[in-house]
Each structure stands twice: as C-alpha cells, then as structure tokens.
Write a structure and sequence with these properties.
Elements (H helix, E strand, L loop, with lengths): L57 H19 L4 E2 L2 E2 L1 E4 L4 E4 L2 E3 L4 H22 L2 H6 L1 H17 L2 H9 L4 H26 L5 H9 L5 H21 L1 H7 L2 H4 L10 E4 L1 H4 L11 H6 L10 H4 L20 H13 L6 E4 L1 H6 L3 H6 L4 H22 L4 E7 L6 E2 L5 E11 L5 E8 L5 E2 L4 E4 L3 E11 L7 E11 L6 E10 L2
Antiparallel strand pairs: 1-2, 3-4, 4-5, 6-7, 8-10, 9-10, 10-14, 11-13, 11-15, 12-14, 15-16
Length: 499
C-alpha cells in the first residue's frame, strides 16, 4: 500500500515514478549585494551670512575714490544741460541719442558696436595685466555694495555689533535699526532707478512728473525695477552675485597666466601660522617653525566674499585688496615688513622676484596683442567720430510711380530723400543730381531742416526724350549743407527709362 504523495511531487503522481528532488542552495544573507545608499544633493549651497569688517588703507582709499567718481558722474550727468537740452539723453521715442555735442541716429549703431568692442578689449587687457581690477574697484555691484555696507555700518555698527544685533531677540532697538537700514537702502535704490530712467526720459520732466504724482506706467515700472534690483543685489545678495551670477568669475582664468598680477599670500614667508608676542625675535620664531602670519583671521573678516586668501587663488576673489590693507596694518603693529599679502604673480612668488622683475614681464605677447588691437579699434572709432558728417541722407525710390512720361516727352522719376540734420542748428541744404546728359531737377533744390531733426523730401528728376536707352541708369544726388564749412554728401541711385 502506497503512502500519501510527497510534498515535492504533484498530487496524484506516484513517488516511485517521480524525478529525484533538486538540491537546494542556501545563500547567506551576508553575500547579498547591499543596496546603494541614496544621497540627497541640494542644487543650492546655503552659506552663512558674511559680516565684512571695515578696513582702511591705500587700496581702500582708491576704491572709495572710484566710488565717489563713478557715482558723481552717474547721478550728476543727467542734470547737465547743453544747448537747451540734456547733455546726455537717449531719446528712444524720437530716435535721437544726444551725447554732449554729438547727435546720433539709429543708423549710427556702429559706434555702439565699437564701444562694446573697446570695453571688452579693455577688460581683457586689464585682466591679463592685473586680474579682476574692474570687479574690485569699478563694477556697479562692488560700488553699490560698498555704499550699502557703509549705510549698514553707520546704522547698525561695526562687525561685532552687527553680529550681536542679528543674534539678539527682536525688540524695539533691533526693529528701529533694521527698519532705518532698509529705509535708507530702498531710498538709495529708488534714487538709482530714477536716475537711470532719467537717461532715457528727460530727468527734469521726470522729476516734475514724480512731484505731481503723474509718472507714466512705463517710467514707474522701470524706476521700480532698477530700484528694487539695486536694493536686492547690493543689500541682500551681495557676494552671491559675484560668486554664482556673474559669468566673469567663471571665465576669468582663461585670461590669467603665470605673469598676471593677482592678490597673493606669500606662503614661504607666512607659514607656519601661529600667535606670538610682539617682542619675540625672528630667530626664536624660526626656531619654533613660525612664519610672519600670526593667524589673526582679519584677512577673512574683511573679505566681502568670505574667502581665505591664504588658501590660494580662488574664483570668488574680486581683487578688492581689502586683505592687503588689513594685513599691512597687522604687519606694522608686529614690526614686520609689509607685503605678506600683496599684488604679485605666481612666477614672482615661486622665484622670489621683486617688483621690477615682475613688471618687466608685463609686456608679454598677450598683453601687447590686447593693447595693439585696443589702440587700433579706439583710434578707428574716435577718428570716425571726428570725421563724421553732421548730416545723413537716405535715398528711396517712390514705389507708387517708378517712371512716367511728363510733358513734351520727358521721362520723370520720383525719389524720396530723408535728410537727417545731426547738428544743433537749423541748416539749409542744396540738392542737385548728375549722371545722365540733360538730367534736371524740377522740384525745389533748397531744403531747410530743423536742428537735430529729419525731413522727408520728394525729388523729381526729368530726362529729355531720347537722352538715354531704355533700362536702368546710375545717377548721383549731391546734397550740400549751406553752413560755414559747406559739407557735401553724394548718394547713389538709379534712373529708370521705360521701353
């Protein structure tokens, strides 16, 4: 009698006829591959707030001199009048750009292109010679950050007081100081936005509209836009703009080489770091393995981007030289030579060169190429402006009547001339045409155009019958300004003779 079927066989199948069971393989748990650990990565790096320390010194004075110079120019230039108008005004509605005695039209866009090329080449040249000078001294982000930090220090106190204020609980004193600071920041930002818009809308008209609460929607939008941008960038974002938003920080290294002057920490002289009494002599310091750096950390405290220059060149460094000023002050107190942090080149630091040896390497191939191209482009732009004609003429054929027959069989073509007077006085222009035998101008040959204005003039040319074969024939319009210099322009067009 057979027993019940084994659990290893299908029901109803005899055990004697089934295949032998397969051996089972037991895998230890330890041998199973571990699941990869999930690591969460943030796309935004949150840094602690930077509290730059105030600093005085030679470079600081130069930086504030440029702050004053650039802002006096920016805020004061729109209020300067010349010939009964704003001296610098970009009138987009009238398509006129007034720059002192120059009156430019959209056709003069080539000069803007030249200005942009000059600016780019200047940036390349200065960067190749001495690093990020523009960023450290004249960049609007640096300039307005300096202004905003000055207001912050005046209201909230120095670095230690600001840290203590931020760490304290909210109270009447903290609320008053914070409110006063942001009120000043917003006022500076709005005045900056108002001034910027004043370069495109006459600033006296703009001021009158603001005083009468009659500012237009577009002017209101742009004043608020640039005002809040200044407030946000210089008051809140500060070093974040330089570190994460400015593209120059990323590609500056392409213009650096081993002979570029950069803010550098002299490692051979400064290491090892450590505190010491002022009275300790140099031989004793060297015996203990100490360099000139006393590890006070002031170079980090004054840095507006919060870096440690002793770690070497970093893309966040804007070459403001605040660390040089504060370190020189510490060296003076310790009776050590200045220049532990200084402008130097990598080659100069590595080989122990002096100032003269480093400056001899300034006139290298890259710098000479930048300087030569910059000089060539600047000369070309200035020469073109100096030789520029005070008026322009565009010739357009009348599409409504390309060619027609007038009385006595004369062939007549009609043209439209746009005469643009770029001078500040009313000017009369004499018109004439040449190019075909017997060609005559039958419309008025003297045209008057107002100062800094443009006028369209209809010009009729007639040709005697049989004077030219059917087809297209080149003609030249001569436009002569009836001023003291009797300037003349010649514009080309075509005269059509029907078949």
């Amino acid at each position: 009698m057979t027993g019940p079927p084994s659990g290893d066989h299908a029901p109803g199948v005899a055990a004697s006829s089934a295949a032998p069971p397969l051996p089972r393989r037991v895998i230890p748990i330890q041998a199973l591959p571990a699941e990869p650990e999930l690591i969460e990565t943030s796309l935004y790096q949150s840094d602690s707030k930077i509290y730059p320390r105030a600093v005085t010194g030679w470079f600081s004075r130069w930086r504030w001199l440029l702050v004053w110079g650039t802002q006096l120019l920016f805020y004061g230039l729109p209020w300067w009048t010349m010939n009964g108008r704003q001296a610098v005004l970009f009138d987009l509605e009238a398509r006129r750009f007034y720059i002192f005695k120059l009156v430019l039209y959209p056709q003069d866009l080539i000069y803007l292109t030249g200005l942009l090329i000059i600016s780019a080449l200047s940036l390349f040249l200065f960067t190749a010679v001495a690093g990020r000078l523009w960023c450290g001294y004249a960049c609007p982000q640096t300039v307005y950050t300096e202004i905003f930090m000055w207001a912050e220090r005046r209201i909230e106190g120095d670095r230690a007081q600001r840290i203590k204020l931020d760490q304290s609980a909210w109270g009447l004193n903290k609320l008053a100081r914070k409110s006063a600071k942001h009120a000043v920041w917003i006022a500076i930002g709005l005045w900056t936005g108002f001034t910027f818009v004043g370069y495109f809308t006459p600033i006296q008209t703009l001021a009158r509209e603001v005083s009468q609460l009659g500012l237009g929607p577009w002017e209101t939008f742009w004043v608020l836009f640039y005002g809040l941008a200044t407030y946000g960038n210089a008051g809140w974002m500060r070093e974040q703009v330089c570190k994460y938003m400015c593209p120059y920080a990323r590609f500056q290294s392409a213009m650096f080489d081993r002979d570029t002057l950069i803010v550098s920490y002299d490692t051979q002289r400064g290491e090892g770091r450590g505190v010491r009494p002022r009275s300790e002599a140099a031989p004793s310091l060297r015996a203990r393995g100490l360099g000139d750096c006393i590890d006070c950390g002031l170079c980090v405290q004054v840095c507006p981007t919060g870096i440690d220059i002793r770690d070497g060149l970093q893309y966040e460094c804007i070459s403001c030289s605040a660390c040089i000023d504060v370190c020189n002050g510490v060296m003076d107190k310790m009776h050590y030579p200045r220049g532990l942090i200084r402008y130097s080149t990598p080659n100069g630091l590595a080989q122990g060169w002096g100032v003269r040896q480093m400056w001899r390497r300034v006139l290298r191939a890259r710098v000479l190429i930048y300087a030569s191209v910059l000089l060539l482009v600047t000369t070309a732009v200035l020469g073109s402006l100096f030789l520029r004609s005070p008026f322009k003429v565009d010739v357009v054929r009348d599409r409504g009547a390309l060619a027609r027959t007038a009385g006595a069989g004369f062939v007549e073509n009609v043209f439209r001339l746009q005469i643009m007077n770029a001078s500040e006085t009313v000017t009369r222009y004499k018109l004439s045409a040449q190019g075909l035998p017997g060609l005559q101008l039958v419309s008025p040959d003297v045209v008057e155009v107002d100062a800094a204005s443009a006028r369209w003039v209809a010009v009729r040319l007639q040709l005697p019958p049989g004077a030219a074969e059917p087809g297209s024939h080149p003609v030249h319009f001569h436009i002569q300004a009836q001023d003291a210099e009797l300037r003349e322009l010649v514009e080309k067009s075509v005269f059509l003779v029907p078949r």
